[in-house]
């Protein structure tokens, strides 16, 4: 149990640290499992220069096979997609994003394609995710901004790892604090809310649609109105449950997984409730955790 029968938040804080250490030091054994995502191909003589001007990441320094996370934004600064871009060749890139958001990503990238030699189309790939790895995986593409997560495209699963489940993958994502499209990230989200700006934004690369909001918030030290946070506790909670702080609803749970110690979740929480603050979800006590320290 994550907290005692009296709901002691001091025990909760202590065991929260223990739980994270347990994952990061291999207490949860490494596994692979199938991933369900959308893949897009961007190729042509102008592929590199066109993408460079459309996304928040600087891809000029990527070598063949190297990748980086990026936001693709609307001109308003709202998020169209959080994606990973991989250079496959001088004039060819692969973008992958969460299942169900590939068409939107493709439409957004095609929207400003005027008189450029680039084709942006849907692609097929069998993708496996490896989580909890204690060393880089041969041929693996780094995932989720961590050091123990890699994805394999059109490759055989590692023979020395067990086949994990979708529930384990969800637990790993929540523990890593990585937001998902349609869950933590919606059409109303801005990059500063997500906790992954350090992974997905380059502040010196030059102009791209939506840059003004991102740069303005960074240069002025502005605080987003809400943030993706992690919480954990005992009992039973579900996606959509309200997060209560000082008697007021400050957010909702967006992803929930069972763990050996109870449950762990991600939620979108108003800035009035900060990491370390005690909250309740239903009858379950919890403490807000920051997700940016990966």
Task: Explain how this protein is built.
It is a single chain. The chain is an alpha+beta fold and 294 residues long. The protein has a domain of 87 residues: Aminomethyltransferase beta-barrel domains (Alpha-Beta Plaits). It is 19% helix and 33% strand. It has six helices and 16 strands. The strands form four sheets. It has a five-stranded mixed beta sheet with strand order 8-9-7-1-10, with helices on one face. A five-stranded antiparallel beta sheet has the order 3-4-5-2-6. The longest helix has 16 residues. The N terminus is likely disordered.
Task: Give a nutshell description of this structure.
With 294 residues, the chain is of the alpha+beta class. It is built from six helices and 16 strands. The chain has a domain of 87 residues: 2-Layer Sandwich (Alpha-Beta Plaits).
SSE order, one letter for each helix or strand: HEEHEEEHEEEEEHHHEEEEEE
* End-to-end separation: 25 Å
- The rough form would be described as globular
Average pLDDT rating: 90
Biggest sheet details: 5 strands, mixed
The gyration radius over C-alpha positions equals: 20 Å
User: Which strand-content bin applies to the residues?
Assistant: 25-35%
């Amino acid at each position: 149990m994550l907290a005692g029968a009296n709901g002691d938040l001091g025990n909760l804080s202590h065991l929260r640290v223990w739980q994270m250490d347990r994952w990061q030091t291999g207490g949860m054994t490494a596994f692979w499992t199938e991933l369900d995502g959308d893949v897009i191909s961007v190729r042509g003589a102008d592929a590199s220069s066109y993408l460079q001007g459309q996304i928040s990441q600087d891809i000029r320094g990527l070598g063949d096979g190297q990748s980086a996370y990026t936001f693709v934004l609307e001109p308003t600064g709202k998020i169209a997609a959080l994606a990973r871009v991989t250079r496959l060749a001088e004039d060819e890139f692969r973008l992958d994003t969460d299942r169900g958001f590939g068409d939107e990503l493709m439409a957004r990238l095609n929207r400003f394609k005027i008189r450029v030699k680039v084709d942006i189309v849907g692609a097929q790939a069998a993708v496996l995710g490896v989580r909890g790895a204690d060393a880089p995986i041969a041929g693996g593409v780094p995932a989720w901004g961590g050091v123990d997560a890699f994805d394999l495209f059109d490759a055989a699963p590692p023979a020395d790892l067990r086949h994990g489940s979708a529930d384990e993958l969800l637990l790993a994502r929540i523990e890593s604090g990585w937001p998902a499209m349609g869950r933590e990230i919606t059409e109303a989200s801005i990059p500063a809310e997500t906790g992954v700006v350090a992974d997905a934004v380059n502040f010196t690369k030059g102009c791209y649609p939506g840059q003004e909001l991102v740069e303005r918030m960074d240069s002025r030290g502005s605080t987003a109105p809400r943030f993706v946070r992690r919480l954990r506790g005992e009992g039973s909670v579900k996606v959509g449950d309200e997060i209560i702080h000082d008697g007021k609803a400050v957010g909702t749970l967006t992803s929930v997984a069972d763990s050996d110690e109870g449950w762990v979740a991600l939620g979108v929480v108003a800035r009035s409730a900060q990491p370390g603050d005690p909250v309740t979800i239903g009858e379950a006590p919890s403490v807000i955790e920051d997700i940016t320290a990966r």
